[in-house]
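quick one: heme C bound model?
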Amino acid sequence: MLSYLPPLCRSCLFVILALATSLTQASEIKRGKELYNTYCADCHGATGISVMQDAPNFAKNESLVKSDFELYDAISKGNNAMPLYQGILSDQEILDVITFIRTLN
Ligand code: HEC
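yep, here:
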C-alpha cells in the first residue's frame, strides 16, 4: 500500500513513525528510571555506579553487553545477593528497567 503513495507522503510517514517510536522509548525510560530508583539504586547506584560489592557497575557497561533476554532472566530470577523480581515487577516493568539501565553506560 505504501508504494502507491507519492514519495513526499512516504517520507512523512517515516518521520511520524520515527517520532512515535522515540516517544514510546522516552516513556519507557522514564518509567524504568522510577522503578530503578525504587528497587535497584540501593545496590547499583542512582547513576549506575554500583554501591555494593559484587553488583555490576552499569556506568562501566558491566553486564550490559548481555542481551535483553539474558538481563530479563537475571532480573527475574536473581542470583546470590541480587534479589529476584519475578512476581514483584511485571514483564513490562522489567523491560522498562532494562531500557533505562542501557542509558547509564
Ligand atoms: C540488594 C542489592 C541489589 C539490588 C536491590 C538489586 N541488585 Fe542487581 N545485582 C546485585 C548483585 C550483588 C549482583 C551480582 C550477582 C551475582 O552474579 O553474584 C547483581 C546483578 C545484576 C545484574 C547482572 C546480571 C548478569 O547476569 O550479569 C543485573 C542486570 C541487575 N543486577 C539488575 C538489577 C535491577 C534491574 C534491579 C532492580 C529491579 C536490581 N538489580 C536490584 C545486587 C542488587
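The chain has one domain: 30-105.
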